[in-house]
Amino acid sequence: MNFDLTDEQKMLKKMVREFAENEVEPSAAERDEEERFDRVIFDQMAELGLTGIPWPEEYGGIGSNYMSYVIAVEELSRVCASTGVTLSAHVSLASWPIYKYGSEEQKHNFLHRLATGKALGAYALSEPAAGSDVVSMSTTAKEDGDSYILNGNKVWITNGEVADMYIVFAKTDADAKHKGITAFIVEKGTKGFSFGKKEKKLGIRSSPTTELIFENCRIPKANRLGNEGEGFKIAMSTLDGGRNGIAAQALGIAQGALDAATTYAKERVQFGKPIAANQGISFKLADMATEVEAARLLTYQAAWLESQGMEYGKASAMSKLFAGDAAMRITVEAVQIFGGYGYTKDYPVERYMRDAKITQIYEGTNEIQRLVIGRMLTK
Ligand code: CAA
Ligand code: FAD
């Protein structure tokens, strides 16, 4: 395995870092405070080609790969984890399943609009009573002539309401369990599709998380993704890659917290010397830096395996598990290094700490990642 960045990836990393620091970071604290999503930032990402990084040019992408994609999510999350997940949900969760399972017509239409950033995407799997236990979902899709009729509620949907296109999973056969779920592409504005509660959250507050409501919502058969009954496989295989996007988000948050804490520890003077001169602080920084590097290697490994067309599901669950837990530990330590100032909104580390928590919860809680890894080891 060789994770050396190519010249193209080095250029992309530099470009995204400049964009993140100049265009995203300045408003990050304010957007967090106001729980405000900024579509202009998404449009700027589209102009830079970030919305279609891994997809071929014929589908509106820039023809790069998953390594470039995780680098972009990492760099955005280093300054604003909400912006990181906007891109991650858009690319990994909304666009990937169309690239993988869509017909040519769906790729030229839906994927092209997502890749070029003309449309923003979202992925709707979870329900009030079906989070970890996906197959217990109750949203239904009933065949009716050339359409399906959707009924039910989805909750916690990232990019909800602001997205233009939703990958929605529903039961077409209630008795067939895993084999009775089907995936659909649903566009905003479809009659019978509306939005419910917007969550008020601990972290990633400028990423909207919204309920979707389907009431006799008629979806043309042309919008069915894959075959009837293939939805569970589509959902799970989408998450195989999506989880590495969240690992990249966690890695970016952790790197941001480490950078801030290192700078502060060198500048803050107590007892006549910088606090970094105390072994108690420098050992903390050493542990944080080591965990950041380990998280990066696992994240890049999963992206590299996917880029090579090799099996990456286990690697991706491992990267998400490790990077999420590491980001939580690292951001807590960063707040500690800042002392009382770290507990205030004068510095970004309290935001990093609040944002880190979600990386242990969504795209499968870290308990579920352990379940996935354990099953793969023992099957
Ligand atoms: N790829 C393809 N097929 C898969 C698969 C995969 N990764 N994982 C499982 N399958 C297949 C199995 O092979 C099995 O097929 P057969 O019946 O033919 O043998 C079938 O699916 C059922 O598999 P399981 O028995 O493993 O299913 P389960 O009901 O025990 O559930 C689970 C497994 C891993 C717990 C799954 O329900 C799960 O991942 N839960 C977590 C849900 C989740 O991650 N939600 C995230 C929502 S998106 C989000 O949160 C967005 C965001 O952050 C921005
Ligand atoms: P539950 O499944 O009820 O779990 C509760 C607790 O029990 C957890 O600690 C869990 O780990 C544990 N647990 C459950 N089962 C087991 C088990 N078998 N073994 C051990 N422990 C177990 N979903 C989408 O579909 N699309 C999105 O875009 C999306 N974005 C989200 C954004 C945010 C901010 C949040 C908070 C959630 C989002 N989700 C999204 C939903 C997310 O994926 C779920 O919250 C997550 O999968 C957990 O489901 P749950 O909340 O119902 O918890």
Topology:
Elements: H1 7-34, H2 39-47, H3 66-79, H4 81-101, H5 104-115, E1 121-124, E2 140-144, E3 147-158, E4 165-171, E5 181-187, E6 193-198, E7 209-220, E8 224-225, H6 231-267, E9 269-270, E10 273-274, H7 279-307, H8 313-337, H9 339-342, H10 349-358, H11 366-378
Parallel strand pairs: 1-4
Antiparallel strand pairs: 2-3, 3-7, 4-5, 5-8, 6-7, 9-10
Helix pairs in contact: 1-3, 3-4, 3-6, 3-7, 4-5, 4-6, 6-7, 6-8, 6-10, 7-8, 8-10, 8-11
Cofactor: FAD
Domain Acyl-CoA dehydrogenase/oxidase N-terminal: 6-118
Family: Belongs to the acyl-CoA dehydrogenase family.
Percentage of residues in helical conformation:
40-55%
- Mass-distribution shape: globular
- β content, as a range? 15-25%
Side-by-side strand order of the widest sheet: 1-4-5-8
What is the typical, i.e. mean, pLDDT? Answer: 98
Helix/strand/pairing class, anyone?
Answer: alpha+beta
Q: Give the strand tally.
A: 10
Number of helices: 11
Query: What kind of sheet is the major sheet?
Result: 4 strands, mixed
Order of helices and strands: HHHHHEEEEEEEEHEEHHHHH
Give the ligands present: acetoacetyl-coenzyme A, flavin-adenine dinucleotide
Give the C-alpha Rg: 21 Å
Unreliable stretches (pLDDT < 50, length at least 5) are none
